[in-house]
Amino acid sequence: MSQHPIKRSLVFFLVPDFTMVAFATALEPIRIANRMLGYEAYKWRLASIDGQPVPASSGVLCAVNTSLQDERRMMAGPDRPSMVIVCTGINIERYSSKPAFAWLREVHDRGVAIGGLCTGAHVLAAAGLLSGKRCAIHWENLPGFAEAFPNAHVFADLFEVDQDIYTCAGGTAALDMMLKLIGDDFDEDLVSRVCEQVLTDRVRGASDGQRLPLRARLGIQNSKVLTIIELMDANPSEPISISDIARQVGLSRRQIERLFRDEMGRSPARYYLEIRLERARHMLIQSSVPIVEVATACGFVSASHFSKCYRELYAQTPQQERLERKYPAAS
Length: 331
Description:
Layout: E1 8-14, H1 20-37, E2 42-47, E3 54-55, E4 61-62, H2 68-74, E5 83-87, H3 98-109, E6 113-117, H4 120-126, E7 134-136, H5 142-148, E8 153-155, E9 159-162, E10 165-168, H6 173-185, H7 188-198, H8 214-218, H9 223-234, H10 242-249, H11 253-264, H12 268-286, H13 291-297, H14 303-314, H15 318-325
């Protein structure tokens, strides 16, 4: 290697059940950037709590280079990292590690940039690093995260960069976040060369949506129906009446009823209820928010009405959902 200076030294901290796709699409762009540059602009190592291999959500065991004890020792020497990226995935709501949280606070306090892949924002928030900060998390985990960490400003974006804290929604969004990093460190020419290597034709912006557009996801074309569903999606906690929706979109209530029967196979009220119950289900599974608060956050006036509606759709009560997932409700 030439005498070019190292641009960034990264530590990827692996949490059990991390998603391999997000990890790989974060690591590979900097490997390819090194190859395109012809020197080691980026170096990295993998860490775990105890230095032992970590299972990904696929069951694949990933060997690491260091433990947290090693990382603490290296902070005072030439191997001090410039960035730590937390790699997580499923079941993150069950993860709690005081040593990991303390270490993350320590390295951030000492000027190290911090990142989180997929559901990594959950770990950063639990460590107390996201209060008042913009962050991104996978759309499936967003409702529970928003209730559990109300002081964090969470968005359903591909990634967010708030000063020296980087978070992304996982999957291929990790690629977009790292391409942004490479572009900031070097230039768009290098980003384009990395894109060509990974066969992607464009860099998505931070605020590009995580999910497929409604038109593609639901397989419907009627623009009025799509507008109505967007209104429903945006107002789960304080549901808008169908009459108010009708006024906003310039249709009669009867026209909306007929459109939803034709396009969605159910009434608009029923569809709106299912949207709110789906949000409630994510919160029950992915957080310890009390059930009565889940009900309120999803627009139900009482826990008993919420439980009745939930049982009708999912064939079990919210309490049974929690027990089945072995995730205890908060007291």
